[in-house]
Write a structure and sequence with these properties.
251 residues; mainly alpha; Rossmann fold; N-(1-d-carboxylethyl)-l-norvaline Dehydrogenase, domain 2; two-stranded parallel sheet; 10 helices; 5 strands; 9% strand
Length: 251
């Protein structure tokens, strides 16, 4: 959520962040401020006045709220809540939006760095809504591709089996996590190995995504993996918890 709002504000757009948790909103504001400062320093090397102006103007475009109605006057609503279907459906039921105005926008982490945006055109999505999503995606600097509303869309439908098989290889003792990561980075030209990526995105998120794909497709490649289940149960979510497949210095 934070990175998405940061990207929109950096592109000169007004943003309203809505969350039921006020503490998370406060953390989001601090995180965005930090990211804006980092980008400002990169854009205006050594020019403190321009850096300060960039950060101030961008930050002023962002407001936060715990009330859903504070998003009533926006042109576009982007849902970025927990990957649980019942929670998402509960939110959608509260929105007074006709079906033709719904579509999908799937970003990739880290949002400020990853250039891809999957634009999902549902059966009910109007052409106007679809074009609006495409234009907005381009306005925040993304390369947009289109996919039907199919489980996992393009990338995660292909990435899911890759991630699952990597974990199963580790579980069987076929290779170490370090060697699997090195192999995929040097052998497949990927910027991160599967375990580095899982730790970055969150093992809990990875597990929820696998559960959703298994529920929708019944494909055994997405079936629960004992090692992943055990790690999530132990609170080993990756970078955000300080430990996943690797250990991190949690600040």
């Amino acid at each position: 959520m934070t990175e998405l709002c940061f990207v929109a504000a950096q592109a000169g757009q007004n943003v309203t962040i809505i969350d039921i948790n006020s503490e998370l909103l406060e953390k989001a504001q601090k995180s965005i401020q930090t990211n804006l400062t980092r980008v400002g320093k990169k854009l205006y090397k050594g020019d403190e006045a321009k850096i300060a102006s960039f950060v101030k103007e961008s930050a002023e475009r962002i407001r936060v709220s715990t009330k859903l109605e504070d998003g009533a006057d926006v042109d576009l609503i982007v849902e970025a809540i927990v990957e649980k279907l019942d929670v998402k459906q509960e939110l959608f039921n509260k929105l007074d939006v006709k079906k033709s105005s719904y579509g999908g926008l799937h970003f990739f982490n880290p949002v400020p760095v990853m250039k891809l945006l999957e634009v999902i055109k549902c059966d009910s999505t109007s052409e106007e809504t679809y074009q609006t999503m495409m234009e907005w995606g381009k306005s925040v600097g993304k390369t947009c591709i289109t996919c039907k509303d199919t489980p996992g869309f393009v990338v995660n439908r292909l990435l899911g089996p890759y991630s699952a098989e990597a974990i199963r290889m580790l579980e069987r003792g076929d290779a170490t996590k370090e060697d699997i990561d090195i192999g995929m980075k040097l052998g497949a030209g990927l910027p991160m190995g599967p375990f580095e990526l899982a730790d970055y995105t969150g093992l809990d998120t990875n597990r929820l995504a696998q559960q959703a794909l298994y529920s929708m497709t019944k494909n055994e490649v997405f079936a629960p993996i004992e090692l992943l289940e055990k790690m999530v149960a132990e609170g080993k979510y990756g970078i955000k918890s300080g430990e996943g497949f690797y250990k991190y210095n949690k600040k």
